[in-house]
Amino acid sequence: MIMSLSPILGFALGGPEIILILCVLILLFGAKKLPELARGIGKSMNEFKKASKENESETPEPSEADLKAELAAAKAELAAAKAVKRDEAGKN
Fold this sequence. Notes:
By secondary structure, the protein is mostly helical. The chain has 2 domains: 7-59, no CATH class; 62-92. The chain contains 4 helices and no strands. It has helices at residues 6-9, 15-29, 33-58, 64-91. The chain is elongated. The chain starts with 5 loop residues before the first helix and ends with a helix.
């Protein structure tokens, strides 16, 4: 099912509306500047995508040794908690 943008934006853009927007853009920036603007927007989007991918790859994955050490610490903490609970149950 294809979702329409009209519920999101509150209005729909049809053919006449798009043509009107393009005419206004041509009047504002001129026909020679529009390809340069589009190229600039495309380059900006590519840079943003590249930076977000680099940011994702910078987060290091924990090594197996780190995971084993964390697991051992959690097990030790659990054993200590069980011992404390057992001691409290023995006192009552």
